[in-house]
Write a structure and sequence with these properties.
This is Activator of Hsp90 ATPase 1 family protein. By secondary structure, this protein is an alpha+beta fold. The protein has three helices and seven strands; from the N terminus they run E-H-H-E-E-E-E-E-E-H. 23% of the residues are buried.
């Protein structure tokens, strides 16, 4: 299996300082605003943060992610069950993917690299559905955070 079937990577250059982008990623209220999810509480390394999706068409769907790392103004990472939007399917025993937000200062602001890896461990047809959906989703979310940090 090649990287295209295991990993999604998106790079976006944001016209905002690293500190601003970091806050948008790690403050649970700000994250919820641009990501379209209402979270029950803050992100804490090693803990699961839960909430409900507010994105049109998925309103009320449960959202959960385990914070894996928070390296201040460098890396925010969480694991989750990708494309977990069908309440009739229990994915709790399935492997998770790892989402990483890497921040790098550049002359015009911040280069944000969003990577989601681990799709190869998922079973078909769920793997293919999650890859397809999340590729589109990360394009949308990259636009959402760009708009949020420059507003």
């Amino acid at each position: 299996m090649d990287d295209a079937e295991d990993c999604i990577s998106k790079v976006v250059e944001l016209a905002a300082p690293v500190s601003r982008v970091w806050r948008a990623l790690t403050d649970h209220v700000e994250f919820g605003h641009w990501f379209r999810v209402k979270l029950d509480g803050p992100f804490r390394p090693g803990e699961i943060t839960r909430g409900r999706i507010t994105y049109p068409g998925y309103e009320g769907v449960a959202w959960a992610a385990k914070v894996e790392r928070m390296d201040r103004e460098r890396l925010f990472a969480f694991s989750w069950h990708p494309f977990d939007v069908d309440a009739t399917i229990d994915v709790s025993a399935e492997p998770t993917t790892l989402v990483e937000f890497r921040l790098e200062p550049i002359a015009t602001g911040t280069r944000l690299t969003i990577t989601e890896s681990g799709f190869a461990a998922l079973t078909d047809p769920r793997r293919l559905e999650a890859l397809r959906s999340n590729r589109k989703g990360w394009d949308i979310q990259a636009g959402n955070i760009a708009q949020h940090v420059t507003a």
